[in-house]
Design goal:
Elements: H1 27-40, H2 42-71, H3 75-88, H4 93-109, H5 113-126, H6 131-143, H7 147-160, H8 165-177, H9 181-194, H10 199-211, H11 215-228, H12 233-247
């Protein structure tokens, strides 16, 4: 997926309820502190969010709790909370759609791509021209093995945003899974034209070069990923591909 679960900022858009009794709470400051804690110490953040919710924290507290659960890798519960939050908040449709996108990310990480597709379809009814939602749903379709539908979503995303490098990378992968290597390579090349050091783009082009009998080109791409983005998932995959190629040279 293309999003980070903690990316939404609530305090600028939501009105918080202050309890009738007790000391007044600076909810905006509490939200920022809770979100920082959700990244650094998510278990503590979840406990703080629960307590804050009972003191009038409202939707912002619910969001912090969901992000904390996501970072604790309790993905299914995080997804359910994101979905409930999207239904409960008073906000513009695109804002609700972004929360549903985080729910979908959690469902994907919980190995439930079907639920991710359903949630993203709902999100697209709220924000139909959002290319990120289309790219996310394409990734969910691909996780289900439905590559033609993934390509259709990516076609639509690229019609909206022709400069979306990640969409080209995903479409290259989908074409590869359908054994359409020329289309896959064209998409990988376009992604790298847009972003020459795109790690997933380099990884994908390396795979395609390997499949087309160009081990030297594949090695060049994979080494570039390892060099320019050493701590990414793409680099880990590139190293694994290099090791396999060295074990079984052409």
């Amino acid at each position: 997926m293309t999003r980070t679960a903690g990316a939404i900022v609530f305090c600028a858009t939501l009105t918080f309820t202050i309890p009738a009794t007790g000391a007044e709470i600076d909810h905006a400051r509490t939200y920022r502190a809770c979100m920082d804690l959700a990244r650094a110490a998510p278990e503590d953040a979840f406990e703080q969010a629960v307590g804050w919710r009972h003191m009038g924290g409202g939707d912002a507290a619910e969001h912090c709790a969901a992000v904390a659960l996501f970072n604790l890798e309790q993905f299914a519960e995080a997804a359910r909370r994101f979905e409930a939050l999207a239904q409960s908040i008073h906000a513009e449709p695109p804002f609700k759609a972004s929360i549903l996108a985080h729910a979908a990310q959690a469902w994907l990480l919980d190995a439930q791509p079907g639920r991710a597709v359903a949630v993203l379809t709902a999100a697209l009814t709220l924000s139909p021209d959002d290319p990120e939602l289309l790219v996310d749903r394409a990734a969910a379709h691909a996780a289900l093995g439905d590559y033609p539908t993934a390509i259709a979503d990516l076609d639509n995303a690229l019609a909206i945003d022709p400069g979306h490098a990640q969409a080209y990378v995903f479409r290259a992968s989908a074409h590869r899974h359908l054994d359409d290597l020329p289309s896959a390579l064209a998409d990988a090349e376009q992604a790298l034209t847009l972003e020459p050091d795109h790690p997933e783009g380099r990884l994908e082009r390396g795979i395609l070069r390997r499949l087309q009998g160009d081990p030297d080109g594949a090695r060049q791409d994979w080494l570039a990923v390892v060099t320019t983005a050493p701590h990414t998932d793409a680099a880990r995959a590139a190293r694994a591909n290099l090791e396999r190629m060295d074990v079984k040279p052409d």
